[in-house]
From TrEMBL:
Sequence similarity: Belongs to the class I-like SAM-binding methyltransferase superfamily. Cation-dependent O-methyltransferase family.
Stored SUPFAM superfamilies: S-adenosyl-L-methionine-dependent methyltransferases
Gene3D superfamilies in alphabetical order: Vaccinia Virus protein VP39
Pfam short name (any one): Methyltransf_3
Official protein name in the record: catechol O-methyltransferase
InterPro entries reported for this sequence: SAM-dependent_MTases_sf, SAM_O-MeTrfase
């Protein structure tokens, strides 16, 4: 399978955690342009894209969908961004850079795989963003509780980017709501809303407080157990679906609706 010029290699059946992430790290740290890459988020992103285009597919948000979100960051000027699902740091570098340019302060990236978290730390340091981007390693539900407890100077997050296990989006958004990490004024961006799609998530962010309360009744006001979150049914989102291209390019028969933007 060959890649289309400017696009990543096709995804394949096995598409991560098969050694390619370590190969990416080596590719960047031994890159012939290494001295030019140092301290430049744009050059690190270009080198990651070069790997995706010439060596192996990477499950990054990619430059096309990424631009939708960097434009949003420039427009909305969040001070804080929380990302769930960091992988090797592509989105943390792209959005952490946009956050810094917009005058923001803190980008937290939650990643449960220790090897991926370590690669993100190394690549964000090479990009010169280690003062902005902080990686929290471990399952996100543990990290979210830690963030809420420690406060980190941030009560609720201005922008939350969901890009981890799609089936967990809704339960983890509800935990963010319960913990007050998502509150009025927050923007929630959810990736991959067409492929593979996420009907329970989409229905929830469009539902009225009364219908959400009805579903939770009689437990509203109580906290969830460790596994299942009830959320905060009183929150109302203004929601829109945005179109973007996958890093591999867009197959003609797949509608390109990929990102869901929800303002509380
Ligand atoms: C699609 S990748 C993220 C890509 C990244 N946002 C980017 O665009 O560069 C999804 C990541 O979420 C992580 N992940 C999945 N479930 C998680 C969880 N419960 N807690 C933390 N990380 C999780 C995976 O290990 C994987 O690295």
């Amino acid at each position: 399978m060959s890649s289309v010029e400017g696009f990543y290699k096709p995804e394949g059946t096995v598409f991560y955690n098969d050694g390619r992430e370590q190969q990416l790290l080596k590719f960047i740290t031994t890159h012939p342009e290494r001295s030019a890459i140092e301290g430049s988020p744009e050059a690190v992103l270009a080198a990651i894209d070069e790997f995706g285009q010439t060596r192996d597919f990477l499950m990054n948000v990619g430059m096309h969908k990424g631009k939708i979100i960097t434009d949003l960051i420039s427009k909305e000027q969040p001070k804080t961004i929380l990302e769930i699902g960091g992988y090797v740091g592509y989105s943390a570098i792209m959005f952490g850079n946009a956050l810094r340019k917009a005058g923001g302060q803190k980008y937290f990236s939650l990643e449960m795989n220790p090897e991926f978290a370590s690669i993100t730390r190394t690549l964000t340091a090479i990009a010169g963003l280690d003062d902005v981007v902080e990686v929290l390693e471990g399952p996100c539900r543990t990290s979210l509780r830690k963030l809420a407890k420690d406060n980190m100077g941030v009560k609720s997050w201005d922008l939350v980017f969901l890009d981890h296990a799609k089936l967990s989006y809704l339960n983890d958004l509800k935990l963010c709501e319960e913990l007050g990490l998502v509150a009025p004024g927050s923007i929630v961006v959810a990736d991959d809303m067409y492929r593979p799609g996420n009907p329970p998530y989409s229905q929830y962010v469009r539902a009225s407080p009364s219908s959400k309360t009805e579903v939770c009744s009689p437990f509203v006001g109580g906290m969830s157990d460790d596994c299942v979150s009830l959320g905060n049914p009183s929150l109302v989102y203004r929601t829109s679906l945005l179109e973007g291209l996958e890093p591999t390019g867009q197959p003609v028969n797949v509608p390109p609706i990929l990102i869901e933007l929800s303002n509380v």
